[in-house]
Amino acid sequence: MPFRKVNVKEEINKRLENDIELKMAYDFAQREYEVLKHLVKLRNEMGLSQDDVARKSGVTQQMVSRIETVSNSPTLRNFMKYVDGLGLELRFEKKNENIEYSQV
Length: 104
What we know:
Number of helices: 5
Structural class: mainly alpha
């Protein structure tokens, strides 16, 4: 079989269009990634190291590192301590039900 170049983004989008469960899982993972990326960006903008946040929050630096890693899922308690250590607060808004999901 000859080598065929594949457009990965195109392939992913096709699969997401055809599999609603995959699309939901993908969108959820993207939201997790965006939350963590935003929190790390805020921490860096505040000039805080992971050690600083650990001292302020009462969790270890290793726990801060795990919280900031997408593949980890901290307990709600540790996540809230982390947010407090950043000097932030959580707010909740009603979701816009007419959100159009973006393509990859």
